[in-house]
Amino acid sequence: MRRLIAPAVLLLLLAGCTTAPDGTEGRPDGPRWQPRPGTAWQWQLRGRLDTSVDVPVYDIDGFDQSAKAVAALHREGRKVICYLSTGAWEDWRPDAAKFPRSVLGRGNGWEGERWLDIRRTDVLEPLMAARLDMCRDKGFDAVEPDNMDGYQNRTGFPLTARDQLRYNRLIARLAHERGLAVGLKNDLDQIPELVGDFDFAVNEQCAQYGECAALSPFVKAGKAVFHVEYELPTRRFCAESRRLRLSSMLKKYELGAWRRAC
């Protein structure tokens, strides 16, 4: 049965759906942040944090950056994303010794990193929950969980697409339980199944590999796609990015402060 809504309640509902001046919008079902398509961003994981880039969203390392750094960005009106590796082990992280050798697989191509056996949620869920607690406690608005497509790589484990869907949804649930928005990193083939579980997408090199159209379900759902290229000049991908309403920029592989936005 449809119910009539009292005027005061209606005003509250409308207020919860208004667009903020930073290009984001609140979610009508709660306070979780929802970035809109086309929202500009900066992604910096290395070097001294440069807060001078005039964009509404910063994506920074969750371990390396402090609550003070997050608060400083908030004072400037920015939303802040917490970068974490959730699908690979990194030997330099402060919690590295808590990962048993049984869940460590092949190297993923980056020094000091090895794929994780994402089937072992009994081991990984508490470890990832603790990392997301850190992001929440530092005041981050969202999380970017990296290495979320192990099933398509030589990990040393017989991972399946079903394993990946289960694990990615677990990470999304853990983030949402802490009030954090969460982005789907790469994993293009599973976007149709996962677009409803994630609040935005983060993609590397979709233009170089002719895959950017696969991200359209996020845009159609009113969710931002934060996209970077490393090897193509901006003249090779910016026109398509604008057509697809992606938030695109050129970065260097080390992901320092330098950027060239579309």
From TrEMBL:
SUPFAM superfamilies: (Trans)glycosidases. Residues 41-257 form the Glycoside-hydrolase family GH114 TIM-barrel domain. Pfam families: Glyco_hydro_114. Keywords: Signal. Residues 1-20 form the signal peptide. It comes from the Bacteria. Coiled coil: none annotated. This is Endo alpha-1,4 polygalactosaminidase.
